[in-house]
């Protein structure tokens, strides 16, 4: 028995002493399980000399379609509500939190450090530092891994991470010419100077500048890129609609069965209390089939029904060092283990982040795809998901584009986003990452698994993947 | 020179007396409580519950606001938000401060977190069975040191405490509407309430920015009990044919900030009916005056007052000069009684209202409900709108003269009977002119 395992050890790409040490340690304590003829021993991914970082709890306010109940609020109001929800759920004393990091994409200019404004509003001490990060759709993942880094480095014990996005109100700016004129006017001293500036204003100065959901480097909208990606991988319209229907159906079921435990109610000032996500709408293949393509007309395959929709929402997650969590009497939900960030070409590989990130993180953790029990991938577009699945299942892609010897394999769909995904639940850009992590943790507990893989693509041609390990029950 | 003249007027003395009284009532005569109240729970997100929550959160007290229905809870939370937002509009708060204050408020439908509560204030429906049910539910989840306070305006605290396993922790905390504007808090102790419970209740009231009086348990406590006879007299005056606008004018001329008929609308005709019935049962004929059936008919027709949009007046959003409710003409006609011209001058009407108030206040002091006249004056002015320029019922009795007051009472007693019989304490003061309530 042990010789079989040690040969398996030799075949693993053991790159450093710690791996051997960790494996050896877990071999000795898992020896009692060998008698039960398990196909593989599920080892823990703890590293000697590295602090274990745990998730104590994660919440989110209901994700709503833009322009609905959150429309009159500001992003820090949503973030504050998520923070308050987290405080209520965990009863963690505010002064215990060492640091707060939030991720957001479309910044409200007045609250450029939305983490700080939200934290102060939620009653955190003004002595608790807070900062805001931005990395497109993986902003809250970045917030969480920033927290993991601080805890692992021993500089903090308790970090609150989260993400927020308010698409109902976006910064609509004056045109550059108008801005320049106004700023110069500010500096103009004499009436003559001012008048000469004003006389230069033309009608085109008044055209406003809207923030576009387009890549700055390529000027291509993300939907357009997704359509090209789907075409490149031969993903049909039908397949995409089917996937979208799957996402909505599974989300509806999860909502009805009360599985979405991370949702906290939010009393919106002047409106009723919001308790549920309002974007979940399972339709039918016929209905979805009627829609025209949204980005590449007339023959594109990406439509409004098989894309994620503009959403408002916020999430918050409480992460601690394992010792601190146990000392405070908490039962952690999961360990946050290895994570990677990847970057590729924003033109042709914009949305392939999960494909690049998955094999890298598995390698880091010493796992194979079959070791993963729960997959939570961000669903930007059905076409993007399916293209990634096909890429992951392709030896050719792995060899020619990723410089790998063989494919990593596609995640089996029965383990994949089984409680819905961004397509159906909604995608407030900055907030999705925390939702993926806490859903992975909850699913591991409910479905009886040990490892979860969270992955996401992001604008800018970047991606992220992280291993979440269920905390021993 | 004019300043000097003004400084020695009765009004000046009255106002100075009120100032000193306020200072006195802002001290905690029960000492420091053993445990500071850090977490407060308010039951019932109605007008009073939400108001109590508002004055607690803006002083930094973590407050749980619990209701049984989501709609009620939403309404209550919205009320707190509106109250704070009003201050933002007036620029006395920034929107940021408003949001930070609101983060102290936890609205919920269950008893989560009650195991950490240091004090529970119930502001649920004014029915003894509902209050007993709530008391039992709450006692099952709160810690041993937690105090149970009731915001009831008339149900005797000892009756509420009858359902409690720890009556020494039960106390009355009677707030006045609107809670964020009315400064008075009337605390009611039973003979079982412990000193520490009282100290804690006073401490919380002071933290909320209230002026506190502490009275003993009894029907109507002090405030409701003094107001009862006066409102009864108002109804009699209306029945005698004086229209509501005139009654208001006469009472405001005397110094009441709110006219007497409007006051009934503000209190609520249904509440007034309830109180009149309960106090009538407890004290008998002395609390009679106007016909309670007039109130009952108003309630039947839905003329509940401001909260229903119609009472003696019609209340419309944005309309400043209220019109008299035309539906009242029929009711007043139905209950019309003949007026005695000897006691119907404007001055008489004013004195009829005031003497009943003062007489009842004196009786409260006589019976030990009130511990001293200072609290009596403060309670009347800051909770019931007794004319501040007169300094309160006891200051008024001193300045008008107890002898003169008793004479007036006897005059009206001759016409109306026992409702105007002067109490023993007033008679004692009338008989020895050197005896004053305030030295």
Characterise this structure.
The complex is a heterodimer of chains A (473) and B (439). The longest helix of chain A is centred in the middle third of the chain and has 20 residues, at 237-256. Chain A is α+β, with helices and mostly antiparallel strands and 473 residues long. Chain A has helices at residues 2-11, 17-30, 75-90, 114-121, 139-152, 176-187, 191-199, 222-232, 237-256, 285-289, 322-327, 353-365, 382-392, 395-401, 422-425, 432-447; strands at 53-60, 64-65, 99-103, 130-133, 158-165, 266-267, 273-274, 311-321, 334-343, 374-377, 451-458, 462-470. Chain A is globular. By secondary structure, chain B is α/β, with parallel strands linked by helices. In chain B, 51% of the residues lie in helices and 9% in strands. Chain B is built from 19 helices and eight strands. In chain B, strands 3-2-1-4-5-6-7-8 form an eight-stranded mixed β-sheet, with helices on both faces. In chain B, 51% of the residues are buried. Chains A and B meet through α3 and α4 of A and α4 and α5 of B.
Annotation keywords:
heterodimer, A: 473 residues, alpha+beta, Peroxisomal Thiolase, Chain A, domain 1, 10-stranded mixed sheet, two-stranded antiparallel ribbon, 16 helices, 15% strand, globular, disordered N terminus, B: 439 residues, alpha/beta, Rossmann fold, N-(1-d-carboxylethyl)-l-norvaline Dehydrogenase, domain 2, 8-stranded mixed sheet, 51% helix
Distance between the termini of chain B: 27 Å
Largest beta-sheet characterization of chain A: 10 strands, mixed
How far apart, in Å, are the first and last alpha carbons of chain A? 27 Å
Q: State the CATH topology of the domain at 31-218 in chain B.
A: Rossmann fold
Individual helix count of chain A = 16
Contiguous uncertain segments of 5+ residues of chain A: 1-41
Mean pLDDT of chain B: 91
Over the alpha carbons, how many angstroms does the gyration radius of chain A reach? 24 Å
Count of DSSP E strands of chain A? 12
Residue share in helix of chain A: 25-40%
InterPro entries (chain A): Thiolase, Thiolase-like, Thiolase_acyl_enz_int_AS, Thiolase_AS, Thiolase_C, Thiolase_CS, Thiolase_N
GO molecular function, one term (chain A): acetyl-CoA C-myristoyltransferase activity
Domain Thiolase C-terminal (chain A): 330-469
Main location (chain A): endoplasmic reticulum
């Amino acid at each position: 028995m042990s010789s079989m395992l040690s040969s398996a050890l030799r075949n693993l790409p053991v790159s450093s002493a710690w791996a051997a040490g960790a494996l050896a340690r877990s071999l000795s304590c898992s020896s009692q399980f060998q008698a039960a003829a398990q196909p593989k021993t599920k080892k823990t991914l703890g590293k000697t000399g590295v602090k274990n970082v745990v998730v104590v709890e994660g919440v989110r306010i209901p994700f709503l379609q833009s322009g609905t109940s959150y429309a009159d609020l500001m992003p820090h109001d949503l973030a504050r509500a998520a923070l308050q929800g987290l405080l209520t759920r965990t009863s963690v004393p505010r002064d215990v939190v060492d640091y707060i990091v939030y991720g957001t994409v479309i910044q409200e200019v007045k609250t450029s450090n939305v983490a700080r404004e939200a934290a102060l509003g939620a009653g955190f001490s003004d002595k608790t530092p807070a900062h805001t990060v931005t990395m497109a759709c993986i902003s809250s993942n970045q917030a969480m891994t920033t927290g993991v880094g601080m805890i692992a480095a021993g500089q903090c014990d308790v970090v609150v991470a989260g993400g927020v996005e308010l698409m109902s109100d976006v910064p609509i700016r004056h045109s550059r010419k108008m801005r320049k004129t106004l700023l110069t006017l500010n500096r103009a001293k004499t009436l003559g100077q001012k008048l000469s500036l004003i006389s230069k204003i033309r009608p085109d100065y008044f055209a406003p500048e809207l923030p576009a959901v387009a890549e700055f480097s390529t000027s291509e909208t993300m939907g357009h890129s997704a359509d090209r990606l789907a075409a490149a991988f031969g993903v049909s319209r039908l397949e995409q609609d089917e996937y979208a229907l799957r996402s909505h159906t599974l989300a509806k079921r999860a909502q009805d069965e009360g599985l979405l435990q991370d949702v906290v109610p939010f009393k919106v000032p002047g409106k009723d209390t919001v308790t549920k996500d309002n974007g979940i709408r399972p339709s039918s293949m016929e209905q979805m089939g009627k829609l025209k393509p949204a980005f590449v007309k007339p023959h594109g395959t990406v439509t409004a029904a098989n894309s994620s929709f503009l959403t408002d929402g916020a999430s918050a997650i409480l992460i601690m060092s394992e010792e601190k969590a146990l000392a405070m009497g908490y039962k952690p939900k999961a360990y946050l283990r290895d994570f990677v960030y990847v970057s590729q070409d924003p033109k042709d590989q914009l949305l392939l982040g999960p494909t690049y990130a998955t094999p890298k993180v598995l390698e880091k953790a010493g796992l194979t795809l079959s070791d993963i029990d729960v997959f939570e991938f961000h669903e930007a577009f059905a076409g993007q998901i399916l293209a990634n699945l096909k890429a992951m299942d392709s030896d050719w892609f792995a060899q020619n584009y990723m410089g790998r010897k063989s494919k990593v394999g596609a995640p089996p769909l029965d383990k994949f986003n089984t409680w819905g995904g961004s397509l159906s639940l909604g995608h407030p850009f900055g907030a999705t990452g925390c939702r993926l992590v806490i859903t992975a943790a909850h699913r591991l507990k409910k479905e009886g698994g040990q490892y979860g893989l969270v992955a996401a693509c992001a604008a800018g041609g970047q991606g992220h993947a992280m291993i979440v390990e269920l905390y021993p029950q | 020179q004019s300043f000097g003249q003004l400084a020695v007027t009765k009004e000046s003395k009255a106002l100075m007396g009120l100032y000193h009284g306020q200072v006195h009532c802002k001290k905690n005569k029960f000492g420091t409580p053993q445990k500071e109240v850090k977490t407060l729970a308010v039951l019932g997100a109605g007008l009073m519950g939400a108001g109590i929550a508002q004055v607690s959160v803006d002083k930094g007290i973590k407050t749980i606001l619990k209701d049984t229905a989501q709609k009620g809870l939403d309404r209550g939370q919205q009320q707190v938000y509106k109250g704070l937002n009003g201050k933002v509009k007036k620029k006395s708060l920034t929107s940021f401060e408003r949001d930070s204050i609101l983060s102290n408020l936890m609205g919920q439908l269950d008893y989560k977190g009650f195991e950490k509560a240091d004090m529970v204030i119930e502001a649920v429906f004014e029915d003894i069975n509902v209050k007993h049910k709530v008391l039992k539910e709450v006692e099952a989840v709160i810690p041993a040191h937690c105090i149970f306070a009731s915001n009831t305006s008339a149900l005797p605290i000892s009756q509420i405490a009858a359902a409690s396993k720890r009556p020494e922790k039960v106390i009355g905390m009677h707030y006045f509407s609107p809670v964020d504007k009315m400064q008075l808090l009337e605390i009611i102790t039973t003979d079982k309430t412990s000193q520490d419970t009282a100290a804690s209740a006073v401490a919380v009231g002071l933290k909320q920015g209230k002026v506190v009086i502490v009275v003993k348990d009894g029907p109507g406590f002090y405030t409701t009990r003094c107001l009862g006879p006066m409102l009864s007299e108002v109804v009699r005056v209306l029945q005698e044919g004086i229209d509501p606008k005139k009654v208001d004018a006469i009472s405001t001329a005397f110094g009441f900030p709110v006219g007497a008929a409007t006051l009934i609308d503000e209190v609520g005709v249904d509440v007034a009916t309830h109180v009149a019935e309960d106090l009538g049962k407890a004290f008998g004929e002395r609390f009679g005056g106007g016909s309670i059936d007039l109130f009952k008919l108003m309630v039947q027709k839905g003329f509940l007052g401001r909260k229903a949009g119609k009472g003696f007046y019609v209340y419309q959003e944005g309309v400043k000069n209220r019109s008299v409710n035309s539906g009242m003409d029929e009711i007043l006609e139905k209950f019309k009684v003949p007026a005695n011209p000897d006691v119907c001058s404007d001055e008489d009407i004013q004195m009829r209202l005031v003497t009943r108030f003062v007489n009842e206040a004196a009786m409260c002091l006589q019976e030990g409900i009130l511990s001293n006249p200072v609290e009596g004056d403060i309670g009347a002015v800051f909770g019931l709108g007794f004319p501040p320029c007169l300094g309160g019922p006891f200051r008024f009795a001193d300045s008008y003269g107890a002898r003169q007051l008793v004479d007036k009472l006897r005059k009206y007693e001759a016409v109306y009977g026992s409702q105007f019989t002067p109490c023993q304490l007033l008679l004692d003061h009338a008989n020895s002119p050197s005896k004053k309530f305030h030295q």
